[in-house]
Amino acid sequence: MRIDVITIFPELIESFAAVSLIGKACDDGLLAITTHDPRQEATDVHRSVDDAPFGGGAGMVMKPEPLFATIEQADCPRPVIYLTPSGRRFDQATARELAAGDGLTLICGRFEGIDQRVRDELVDDELSIGDYVLAGGEVAATVVIEAVGRLVPGVLGNAASVEEESFSHGLLEYPHYTRPAEFRGWQVPDVLRSGDHARVDRWRHAQALLTTARVRPDLLAERGGLDKSDRKVLAEFGLLDQLPPGFGSDDSS
Ligand code: SAH
Predict the structure, then answer these.
(1) Structural domain harbouring 200
(2) Ligand 1 atom 2: the closest Cα is on which residue?
(3) pLDDT, tens digit, for every residue of 160-180?
(4) Gap from CA of 44 to ligand 1 centroid (Å)
(5) Residue 154 lies inside a defined structural domain of this protein
């Protein structure tokens, strides 16, 4: 998969792409991450990529010519995505869609953002990584690269872990434990050491339901609330009365 990043701070992306899981995927030829600096395409002596906004106001705006020139000359892969707080929210479903393709291009804004004509005429999609404002799109680009890159076949050693993790079934993940079985007097739940795999699966499902109900009731509501079998498995582990108010009753709200 080819990922091109348009940024005036290529070293931020390159240092990120050199290490850990994503670095290894690049070394193995599974990912090809390339940066393009629009400053190289600026035509004036100062190599300026930004200018004052028409209509006045604070801050600077990234000029259209260097962005168009950069993307056209490098023949960047589609979709071309602008990272912006006013984009639709990036989530696991979008990461999966992007990972199923063979490439994408990420535009990192700086200052107040980029000229609207780039958004109207060049950009295919706009993504936000959350409801807060960063100083530039580079950190957002690393978030998208990591979330998408780890889903590219072969990048993760254990493909099964992608099936089980948070959001895969509309639920947050269950708790994990490793050795030692007792640490400072705190025990690993007995069920996990019982060897009864069906019961372990039910316990994990019950824990995922409880965590999601407590932390992200919106996710639980989206998947249709708690059904009969969810309640049964919560009851099996004595967790029904730990549900937050609104989930305790017998309806599936
Ligand atoms: N004036 C803009 C914010 C500009 S922040 C506004 O009010 O919406 C500068 C750049 O940082 C943006 O162009 C964008 O590329 C990036 N950025 C900031 N917050 C982001 C977020 N939550 N998600 C994705 N990119 C973001």
Answers:
(1) 164-253
(2) 112
(3) 777 788 888 899 999 999 999
(4) 26
(5) no
- Between CA 211 and CA 202 the distance in angstroms is 14
Same domain? For 233 and 120 the reply is no
**CATH number of the domain to which 34 belongs:** 3.40.1280.10
Same domain, 177 and 141: no
pTM to 2 decimal places: 0.94
Give 25 Cα–ligand 1 centroid separation in angstroms.
28
Q: Which residue's CA lies nearest to atom 12 of ligand 1?
A: 109
Together in a domain, 186 and 144: no
The pLDDT value given to residue 252: 46
Residue 190 within any structural domain of the chain? yes
Cβ(128) to ligand 1 under 6 A?
A: yes
How much distance in Å is there from the Cα of 109 to the middle of ligand 1? 7
The separation between CA 213 and the C-alpha centre of its own chain, rounded to angstroms, equals 22
Q: With beta carbons less than 8 A apart as the criterion, state whether 128 and 85 touch.
A: yes
* Mean pLDDT within 82-107: 98
List, in order, residues 6 or more apart from 153 with CB less than 8 Å away: 30, 159
